[in-house]
Amino acid sequence: MNEHFPIDRRSGISAWKQIADQISRSIRSGEYDETGMVPPETVLAERFGVNRHTVRNAIAALAEDGMLRRVQGRGTLIEKRERLVYPVGRRTRFSDGLGSQAHDLEMRLLSTRSVPASEQVAAALGIPATQSIVLKLDTLSLADGEPISLSTHYFDQRRFPDMASHFERHHSITRALVEQGVEDYFRVSTEVTGRLATSEESVRLRLASTAVVLETLAVNAESSGQAIQFSRTIFAAERITLRLDTQGL
Amino acid sequence: MNEHFPIDRRSGISAWKQIADQISRSIRSGEYDETGMVPPETVLAERFGVNRHTVRNAIAALAEDGMLRRVQGRGTLIEKRERLVYPVGRRTRFSDGLGSQAHDLEMRLLSTRSVPASEQVAAALGIPATQSIVLKLDTLSLADGEPISLSTHYFDQRRFPDMASHFERHHSITRALVEQGVEDYFRVSTEVTGRLATSEESVRLRLASTAVVLETLAVNAESSGQAIQFSRTIFAAERITLRLDTQGL
DNA sequence: AAAGATTTGTCCGTATGTATG
DNA sequence: ACATACATACGGACAAATCTT
Fold it and tell me: Are the CB atoms for B130 and B213 separated by under 8 Å?
């Protein structure tokens, strides 16, 4: 393979960072699986067309993250990981879907706020576009301690005034909804787009700067068809595959 | 709202890049939908705690991408680039799904080949892993002349020996299947992953070198449940949003 | 129509960080 | 360790275009 991207000096990203990202990506794509090692610094330097010092900087950053381990006289060893499969279906639930693939699932509450509903949110929730107040819940999901996704959930303030406190007690949206009289709910629609992570997302999801994320917009509704939740979720693409099952009917 | 993250000076990402990312994200989240404009440079500079020139750099980068347009004396206008929505559901068809959103849909045949089935392909098609021959169809799909996706479709050679010629006549998989006795078929499963485009994909889809793609693995089956098609499709993420329909499941 | 406020465009210069040899 | 080159970031001043009063 060896298809590396050229280093872009005007991208606003320093050369060592770009190289670190590409090495990281090569590792993830399994390019070095045979040896379990990264090529020698001199080889990488020539391949990327940079000085060996720059490659050393890149490797140092990855070693800092624990992705690589440098051993003098031997080379640079790799530590690796797989993607989790996140099922998206009519009954999508965060913990149900990933439960079998990770030992420890965690959903951290980052912030809660009441804000006026934007047009998009109001339309999704089926509430008036003006003068509607929605509850905004920011959460970070982790699997075995590794950040998986960053979500913003919107609920109608009038319908679920105590969403925040219920969620803080259970750390689960499903349970918080049950406590507020929602017996069951369904995923109505999910839109998926792919893009580069913003710097903020890279920090929060512990990703490299040129990492890719999947952004999903989802609407959940009660059996009656009434929308109760609108969510924007940013998945770390390198750790997640979304699977849509359309088998049943 | 207005919750901007502080600029990280030690991240290896320049300030203007981080600011560009945050502005880009704010636009996507609809924060500026009311005015259709980005706040004045002086305001952004103060908000991010940087010099106005740095903000100008960030805006210049976004304007380069066509996301913003600057007008002297007036402000910086948002140019929302809309993506086509590609519905993925039980009855996913290329032309049906996009037909209403583009005037001209085209599916070009890049190559056809008969090859031994790989393990993955054989498993998906439900045929023996060894000594099975599959027909490999590479296609490029365009909407209004713009490349949308790059696909590789696999069919059991024994079941559809004339797939290539039928496809070349109709430029449609659905019609080619009909001619070979498949009255109807259904999407069984779809896996979605996000990643950076390879250099070859960038050329074929006319994308920048660091563009993002959505890679989908899909299996189609007849009413009987027998798998008839396995496809790997690479979507230009900047032009497509996948919509996973879970309404009628 | 004129004046003033707002906002982007452009120029100067200086300092710092990054990459190379 | 040092010299060099380049991109990045900051600070200030003014011009040009646009909008409001």
Answer: no
Rounded Cα–Cα distance for residues A117 and A227 (Å): 14
pLDDT of residue A196: 83
Amino acid at B1: M
List pLDDT tens digits, range A42-82: 999 999 999 999 999 999 888 877 788 888 888 898 876 67
**CB-CB under 8 Å, A194 with B212:** yes
Q: Tell me: the pLDDT tens digits for B178-199?
A: 999 999 999 999 999 998 887 7
Give the three-state DSSP class for B248.
coil
Residue A122: left (phi > 0), alpha (psi -120 to 50), or beta?
Answer: alpha
Residue A20 CB closer than 7 angstroms to strand C?
no
Using an 8 Å Cβ cutoff, are B232 and A214 in contact?
Answer: no
Cβ contact B223:B186 at 8 Å: yes
Contact of B212 with chain A, judged by CB distance below 8 Å, is answered with yes
Span B92-151, pLDDT tens digits: 888 788 888 888 889 999 999 999 999 889 999 999 988 899 999 999 999 988 899 999
What is the model's pLDDT at position A249? 47
- Residues A152-181: what's their mean pLDDT? 94
Q: List the nucleotides on chain D closer than 7 A to a protein CB.
A: 6-12, 16-19
Q: Which residue has the higher pLDDT, B209 or A154?
A: A154
d(CA B142, C1' D11) / Å: 49
Instruction: From residues 20-39 of B, list those within 7 angstroms of strand C by Cβ.
Output: 38
User: Nearest CA of chain B to the CA of A196: how many Å?
Assistant: 7
Q: How far is B73 from chain A (nearest CA, A)?
A: 28
